[in-house]
Design a protein that fits this description.
Order of helices and strands: HHHEEEEEEEEEEEEEEEEEE
Strand content: 25-35%
Number of strands: 18
Distance between the termini: 73 Å
CATH topology of the largest domain: Jelly Rolls
CATH class of the largest domain: Mainly Beta
Radius of gyration: 37 Å
Strand order of the largest sheet: 1-3-5-9-10-7
Number of domains: 3
Helix content: 10-25%
Length: 298
Amino acid sequence: MDYPNSVPSAGLVNGRFVDEDLITGKPGSLIPASWGNGVTQELINVIQAAGLTASEAKVDQLLTALRGSRLFATASQFDNSQTVATTGFVARSGVQFSGLTSFATSTVLTAAHVGGMVSFYSAAPVTATMPVLGVAGNASTLHVINLGTGALTINPAANERIISSNNTVGSLLLGIGDSAQLIRVGTDWRLYGGSVSDRYASAHSGAFGDAGYQRFASGNIEQWGYGSTDANGDVYVTFPISFPVAFSSLVATHVGGDGAMVLLYGGSATKQGCRLRVRNYLGQSSAGWSVNYFAKGY
């Protein structure tokens, strides 16, 4: 639609309508029937597209049409064009979850779950297989939560990968109440949030076993391990990791069939380890006596 520039008798000035000037006697612009009909039809087209019937008695039909549900279609989930975003599209784009689906058994997830939250509730161990990357747009997200009492393992689709926040590649194991937030980045699903991501963050990292450590968000670190005495009854302990700032305390116990004292040798403690001395109640020592220790530092 445009001004009737092609109609000379319309009397446009600089391409626009002007009023009559009574002082100079200059006539005002005329509105050609074709132009008036065109403007009216443009508006009627919008009103009718919204499913309304045009009425001379109503003056709010255009606004009603624009606020209705018939004019704007929700684009496909991964559309990145200049199409107007409906609330349905926004809900699927991460501002809101696109939906919540619950499963009680092992399930292969699909494109329908991308952008939403998926929960599992099972007393037995179950698995969730991620959607194939080809059905999810780049930066698409998926939130998974374990509401059951059995462990939940999140696996990638065949020949694809899940990468944790510290670049560890492999499946994710969710315990009771654990959650995982994943995002498609290029050719991988990446863990970027949820309670399970804490296991891979430097502030919460750890190693488990007979010798191991655990970091805490406060900066404190706990370490544990074991050792055996040498011929002098001493145990030279090397911590699983070096304390970044300082060693603070240690508790150690003798493991055996009789009582023994375990002492931290004065001045031996460093960020990397310490020296322990083991004596029985008679003050005797021997090689091969076992000791378990628990150290703290930061």
